[in-house]
Write a structure and sequence with these properties.
Length: 154
Amino acid sequence: MSKILIYLDNSVIGGYYDEIFAYDTQAFFKRIQNKAFHVFYSDVNETELMLAPEHITDVKSKIPADCLTYVELDEESKKLGRQYIDSGILTWKSLNDAYHIAIASVHRLDLLVSWNFKHIVNYDKIRLFNSVNLKSGYPEIDIRTPQELIHYEE
């Protein structure tokens, strides 16, 4: 079975130590460390994390190097991200959120993983993102929380 290709937004990185999300995020990272997923990470993530505390920026180091691919925000992803905004799904204040979704879509990844319920893990918005994707020649993107990707002990 091949690895599932995922893109992480920074809410997952920050969730590692968050009071509400830590348990599920850490369980999800165990699955990453067990190589169930191949993680894509971008310069948008890096820029957002520049001012974060060191213990947050160090979370990325928990991802095995052979399970991590760094991608740049290219013109194709910028264009698709702007289409999400031009379509009214997100506002310019959420440009980086649009870019995260666009990068995952342009690279045809299996999943985008996020704890951002307002702008990303939101049923109505996901339908709209996928509508733009299909009109623009990209596949639908599946968006999930880390909680949906962990295995519970029965």
